[in-house]
Amino acid sequence: MADRAAELRSELSEVSKAAAVRTSVDAYARASIEFFLWATLSGVCGKLLYDSARPPYAWYPLVLLDLLLIVDVFACYTRAKRLAAAEAHVQARMETLRRELQLDEPWSGGAAGTQP
Hints:
The protein is 77% helix and 0% strand. Residues 112-116 have low confidence and may be disordered. The protein has helices spanning 2-19, 23-51, 59-100. It has a domain at 23-100. It is rod-shaped, with a radius of gyration of 25 Å. The protein is built from 3 helices and no strands.
């Protein structure tokens, strides 16, 4: 019984370290910033095209950059979704371990509280 609890506590320690790192937040932030830049650059490209009889030479590299940005937005967003799903799995495992060790139950004798 004590051996099982020690195994669960060591697994909880490892899972807690893995749950402390949230890389999906960084990926979502990058995707949102790039989306804002894409929208701004699309507006600039549209305005250049609308105001000119012929597209200026600077328009072509801007359109290429705009296309690269939107492709990277989708790549970052899908990566962020994948990372968030993995982080949710780690969080669920950590909650299961805490429940098995009775750490969050009051008056259970665990680390969360002691009986008066």
